[in-house]
Amino acid sequence: MKNIIYITIAIFFVAQVGCKKEVEEFTFKGQFINGTTMQPTRVNETMTLIAKDYNDKFSHEIGKFTTDAQGIFEFKYKRQKGSSITLEDGYTGRVRNLPINENFEKNPWYFSDKGTLELTLSTDNSLKNNTDTLYFYQYYIDGTRILDTFTDIPETYILNFRLEPGPYAFGYGRNFNEFYFDKSINKLIRTKHLQFEITGDPIVDKANINY
Fold it and tell me: Which partner from 1, 40, 195, 206 sits 20 to 30 angstroms from 143, CA to CA?
């Protein structure tokens, strides 16, 4: 009887081991291309993947990978705790909110020298017969410079800028009550905000100001 019990227990444990679920593995891969020159970029560079939860309350390193001479990379990792992946490349900084715990491929992945922003200004009230001025202020790039002012614009006006990839914000306002920059203290006192991101050539990024 004892032998039967031992055999039954042994069979149970063998079955448990045999049914143990394999840890899931995911692949993170792609190729970095300079969209300005259309040539491989970030070649032979070591990059780090960071797992993060919501609101960046915690983070931990998943691992590192190195691109080859063509900017190609492939990295495998086990299931991680967290809600997203941040890529730290040590050059442009960080790329946030990449998918976690799923296969990810981005080919080509554009890391460009310059990107194009197409900014559309639109209004229901033309400034043609108005003494107000629309100020357009790129304060993340240059904290003391007004890029352009308008006293006469049509209902839609498109501006194009060539900028380095990355997050940006503009401040703008139609008059003194909406926009004021105090040059004496180098500080923006009041403004309306527009936030956007330049992703890089050959993509044309778009943003709109409606007022």
Answer: 206
Q: Please, what's the b/e burial string for 104-120 (b: 16 or more CB within 10 A of its CB; e: otherwise)? A: eeeebbbbbeebbbebe
Q: Please list the helix, strand and coil fractions of the chain in percent, rounded to the nearest 5, in that order.
A: 10, 50, 40
- Does 3.40.50.11030 match the CATH number of domain 24-110? no
- If you search the block for the tokens 């100020």, which residue do you land on? 135
Instruction: Find out whether 86 and 59 touch, Cβ atoms under 8 Å.
Output: yes
For residue 192, give the H/E element and its range.
strand 192-198
Residues 6+ apart with CB under 8 A from 91: 42, 45
Total Cβ atoms within 10 A of residue 87: 17
Residue 123 pLDDT: 76
What is the rounded average pLDDT for all residues in the chain? 80
Q: Please tell me the pTM assigned to this model.
A: 0.63
Strand ranges inside 37-184, DSSP E = 39-40, 46-52, 59-66, 72-78, 84-88, 94-98, 104-110, 115-122, 134-137, 146-150, 156-163, 166-173, 180-182
Which of 110, 33, 40 is closest to 69 using CA atoms?
A: 40
Asked if 62 and 85 touch (Cβ cutoff 8 Å), the reply is: yes
Taking domain 115-210, whether its CATH number is 1.10.760 is answered by no
Closest CA to 106 of 49, 31, 26: 31
